[in-house]
Each structure stands twice: as C-alpha cells, then as structure tokens.
Amino acid sequence: MTFVVPFDGSELAEAALVRAVEFAAVLDERVVTVSAIPEGNASYARERGWLDPGEEFDLESVVAHLHEAVTAHAPAAEFRYEVVGRRAPPGTIATRLRERARAEDASMVFVGSENAGRLVSSLGSVGETVATDDAYDVVIVRHRTPSKIERVDDASPFRGAKSDFYEG
C-alpha cells in the first residue's frame, strides 16, 4: 500500500501529511507527497509562501521549498511534483494529482481541505476531483487539530531519517 498526500505547504496539507505518517507508522506503509506547481506563476507561488515577496519564479527554488516543508514533518516521505500550465485551473491540478496517485498505486489519499464539512462532491478545492476516484480510499483532514503535529513529529520513528531525494 502507498499513502499519497497532495501537498501545497498549507496548514491543512501539513496536517494531512502528519495523519498519513501516523497511519503509515502503524501499517508499515510508504508515504508519497505530490505537489502541483504552475509553471512560472510567481504570484501563485508567493500566495502559498513558496517564494518571498518580489522573488522571481524559479522552479528549482519552489521545488526545494516544498521538499523542505515535507521533510520538516515527514523526513522519510517521498516527494514528487508535477508542473502544470501557468494558469492551470483547479480541475487540471486535481487531475494531475489523481493521475499521480494512481501511478503510485495509492491505497489511501490524505487530502487537507477546510471545505470537507460539506458533501465530498462540493469540496471547494482540488479535493473534489481527487476524492471522486474509486481506485483508492480518501481521508479528508479538516482541522490541524486534534492531531498534535509537534508531538507526532517528536515521536516519529522517521525523525532521524533525512530524505534528500525528490523526483519530478
């Protein structure tokens, strides 16, 4: 089994990653994060904290930032990214994430979404398209708590491991 986490660096994506690590530790499974990066879209990257204000878009810098954010919570997690068009709509991003989940043979996908209190079909994020694929189960993380991210990070059996590899 593989647990896949769409990851954009938001608090809910971090919470979803920690939940996946919690499950993976118990079930002895691998965790793969996937980030979708719009090509050359500096404003999109700045809005998500991937670039500093005024910093020019540099794919390598964005990838490094996201990879560091993943390894801060899950050093042993595998990191993947997909480059999408500069103005790719959420549907395109979600489709790429779903394709990657299938390619990774995901058994569960952990989606951080604050809109998950509604029916899954009305999620206001990429979660809708990712969640509709029946090839895997979906865990929707709506809150940063009750998971104790810092406590889980400290107790993680993977805390000492360091991933220095990422794949596009």
Q: Would you write up a description of this structure?
A:
It comes from Haloplanus rubicundus. Residues 2-142 form the UspA domain. This is Universal stress protein. Helices cover 39% and strands 18% of the residues. With 168 residues, it is an alpha/beta fold. The chain has a single domain, classed as Rossmann fold (3-Layer(aba) Sandwich). A 5-stranded parallel sheet has the order 3-2-1-4-5, with helices on both faces. Mean pLDDT is 82; it is low at 116-124.
Quick synopsis:
This protein has one domain: HUPs (Rossmann fold, 3-Layer(aba) Sandwich). Helices cover 39% and strands 18% of the residues.
Index terms:
Rossmann fold, 39% helix, 168 residues, 5 strands, globular, 18% strand, alpha/beta, five-stranded parallel beta sheet
CATH superfamily: HUPs
Share of residues in strands: 15-25%
CATH-scheme architecture? 3-Layer(aba) Sandwich
Q: How large, in whole angstroms, is the Cα Rg?
A: 15 Å
Strand line-up of the largest beta sheet: 3-2-1-4-5
| pLDDT < 50 runs, ≥5 residues | 116-124
Number of domains: 1
Rounded to the nearest angstrom, the distance between the terminal CA atoms is: 21 Å
SS-derived structural category? alpha/beta
Pfam families: Usp
Protein name: Universal stress protein
InterPro entries: Rossmann-like_a/b/a_fold, UspA
Domain UspA: 2-142
